[in-house]
Structure formats: C-alpha cells, structure tokens
Amino acid sequence: KWFMKHLIFIATLTLSSIILNSCGLLGSSEEKQKEELYEWKQLVGFKSGSITAIATHGENVLYIAQSNRLSYSEEAGKNIKRFTAPDSADITKIKVYDRLYIIGDVYRSGAGFWGNRVSYVYASDDNGRNWEEIVGGFRMQDIVVSENMLHIGKKHGVITFDLEGDSVYKSNLFLYSKLSDHMEEITASADGSVYVSSHGGIFATFDRGTTWEKISTTIGKDYDHIKSIAVDDESDMIYAAEYRRLYYREKNEVKWIKKSINSGTEKVRLLSDNKIVTVDWDQVNYADKNSFEFQNIGPYYEQKESEYFSLEMLEVFTDNKIVVAGDEHIFVGTPINN
Questions:
Q1: 96: part of which helix (H) or strand (E)?
Q2: CA–CA separation, 25 vs 6, rounded Å?
C-alpha cells in the first residue's frame, strides 16, 4: 500500500508538471533563455551622489560623472580612476571622439540677485586629468562632434562651433514648442548628417550646421516629443523614442513608421548584432530590429525600502555590453553568449 500510494503521488505530480508546462505556467526553456540573455553587475563606490552622465568608448572604456567628479575605467567599471572637472563644473554630458568632451554647468554670481548657472564645453586629451575650455557662457543640453564641427543643442536651437577655426560658425534658432524649447539628444551619422531630438520633433542638418530642417512632419504634433535618437550607419536607418512608441525610417525616406511597445522608451541605443535596446524606469528592454518584440532583460535590482530607483541613462559598448544608470546606481550587462 505504501509503495502504491507513493507511485500514484509521483505519477500525479509528473502529470501536473506536464500540464503546467504545456500551458506555460512553469516557465518554458525559451523563457528561461530570455531571462539569461545578459548577466548584470552593479558597480560599487557611487553612493556619494547621483550619477549625472555616463559614456562608453570601444569595448571597455567607461566614464561616469557625479557632479564635478569624473570616474574613468578601461575595464568596463573595474580599476576606476577619478578626476575632477575644471571650474567646479557639474558634469551633465560626456562624449568621446578624438578627445574627451564634457558639458559642465558653472555657477556665475553676476547674473541677477541669485546668480545664474551657465554651461561650458571642456575637452581633455588624457581622460580627465587636464582640461581645455572650448566654448560656453550659455545653457546647453547636449553636444556632438562631426567633421571638426562641435554642434551644441541649446534652448531654441543649435550653435555650431568650428573646432579648427576656434570660433562660432553658425547659430540657428528653430525650436519654439509650447511644451518646452530645449533639446533632448543630438547625434551624428558617418556621412556628416546631424540629428536632434526635441520636444518639438526631430531636426537635421545636412550641410555641417549651416541650415536645419524638421524631418518629423509625418509624426503627429501630439506625439513628437522625441526623447532619444539613434542612427544605424550600416542600414541607413534612424530610430527615435517617444514614451511608449518607437519611430523609424530610412535616412532618405520621408514617412516614419510607428511601433507601439508596452515598455517605456526613455533612451534608445543600437547594438552591433541587429538588436535595439531601450531603458525605462527599472528595466532594460531588448528586441530584434526586424520584429520589435521587446523583452525585459534586467538588471532585476531588488529595491530597498525607502530607496529611490530609476534608470535614466543608457549606453552600449561595441561588443554589445550595456550600461544603465540612475540616481546612485549603475549596472553593466554582459551578453551571456559572448
């Protein structure tokens, strides 16, 4: 009797497992594989203040800003060196080209009763040990360097600075949105075209900053608050993120294709294996650029009580590692198959 009871119990349990698996209630091997696409590691040593900017370069170089402190690693977050921004500037953006560039906000006492904060662009040839002031004295949102031109996104438009001539080449004012008049991101493609995402849509220049034109006219006015933009030079595609929507098109096309997704799209970046990633609040979303079927791939952080946790920054390495950051938290995700 004892043997028959246990035999029946084991058979019932096995049958139940088969039924549950067939219904997808226990998690299929495909779901487990999705959960293990990336292995995440939280970097330590950043509890002294909120992270204000991040940047990657190549396969492993990582920059992390906290106010006027710049952390630098050649090993994707290991063996970090720390330097200080000039003029006690609070670093708001980091970009890496032939040199390291930052936007630093500086307090100036001469503007009104309370003074004022203005931005400057600084450049370094030694990863932050020494700095050179390039241009500034006004508020900036983002920068990009293309064909020896420094394009600076600011309120109402873009200032283009000639790095060779050391002078302002052109100032263009074209953004007058009822919601907000500032830029979100500015980026460039290999052919020299420069693109801006903003509260008033997407703008581009094809003549090194001489003129700008709006290229998002086929996106409705209620949906053209474009938070982030990325360009794929291999496929000549442009990707733009707006809340729970992604828009994409070929560079030479006019019409944007809309893709609604369930997860948020605070930032969008492209991986070299035909994948696209976005970040929103507490998760990184990952999809193939052909299907746009996004899935959450981490970092699966267990938030402590009374702790504020929000991921707002996203960058990628050339070997498809991912970096996300927000507040005092920063994570590096490594593809498990690599």
A1: strand 90-96
A2: 25
261 alpha carbon, distance to own chain's centre: 18
Convert the pLDDT of each residue in 231-261 to its tens digit.
Answer: 999 999 999 999 889 999 999 999 999 998 8
Q: CA–CA separation, 84 vs 80, rounded Å?
A: 13
Q: Which long-range contacts (CB under 8 A, 24 or more apart) does 251-256 make?
A: 251/189, 251/193, 254/215, 254/217, 254/218, 255/218, 256/216, 256/218, 256/219
CB 257 within 8 A of CB 248: yes
In sequence order, the 6+-apart residues with CB closer than 8 A to the CB of 256 are 216, 218, 219, 240, 247, 248, 249
Distance CA 89, CA 85 (A): 6
85 token code pair: 């921004």
d(CA 265, CA 291): 16
Q: What pTM does this model have?
A: 0.86
- For 9, phi then psi, to 5°, come to -60, -45
